[in-house]
Design brief:
2 domains; three-stranded antiparallel beta sheet; 2 helices; 7 strands
Length: 119
């Protein structure tokens, strides 16, 4: 091949690589826009997480769902995606002990005191 043909072939490869890179970037942007639209369309609820008496029950509450986390200040009504509500409902404290007759007893109590309003 001549130098001219090599040069043309090299330019064609560069153009193909640039086109592939641009297509990948456009697809990534489209996916990001789609994810953003899905989050915007997600149902939201108003939640207030109430503080308690101990220091552990007065700080902010962090909720994590599928590697996405939100931090909620206690005693303040906030709007959150409904999917985080299941996290609050599932947060429980298991207690075990015995009654006066030596029988094993136990139970579950909610970890957080909270109120919810649909939007």
């Amino acid at each position: 091949m001549s130098d001219t043909q090599d040069s043309i072939k090299s330019e064609e490869q560069e153009i193909s690589a640039a086109e592939a890179k641009a297509a990948a970037k456009a697809e990534k942007q489209a996916q990001a826009a789609e994810a953003k639209a899905a989050k915007a369309a997600e149902k939201r609820v108003r939640v207030t997480i109430h503080s308690g008496e101990t220091d552990d029950e007065k700080g902010d509450v962090v909720l994590v769902h599928n590697f996405e986390q939100i931090q909620i200040k206690r005693d303040v009504e906030v709007e959150i995606p409904e999917r985080y509500l299941a996290i609050l409902k599932d947060a429980v404290i298991d207690t075990r002990g015995t009654d006066n007759h030596g029988k094993a007893i136990g139970g579950r109590s909610p970890r957080f005191a909270y109120t919810v309003e649909s939007m």
